[in-house]
Specification:
The chain is an all-alpha fold. The protein has helices spanning about 1-35, 45-50, 60-75. The protein is elongated and about 40 Å long.
Length: about 80
């Protein structure tokens, strides 16, 4: 009985991790659709870390930074 509970717990964790990864992939896909000309890579936080301020026109820069930050926040919240 104990072994079955442990298996269920482990399986449940993997299922949760799979859903989290799938959600993050969905958010990144939506962001890629909104910013088709950008090479976003796998880690959105890296996109912000390596971004050079002033490399885009101001209005595009603000939109880009806001969209990437919103995507990061959505992934963190999980919805």
């Amino acid at each position: 009985m104990f072994a079955l509970r442990a298996l269920r717990r482990r399986h449940g964790r993997h299922g949760c991790a799979d859903r989290t990864t799938a959600f993050a992939d969905q958010v990144k896909s939506e962001l890629t659709d909104e910013l088709p000309d950008e090479d976003l890579g796998q880690d959105l936080e890296d996109c912000l870390a390596v971004y050079e301020l002033g490399s885009k026109p101001r209005c595009e820069e603000v939109e880009y930074l806001e969209l990437v930050q919103e995507a990061i926040d959505r992934i963190d919240r999980g919805r």
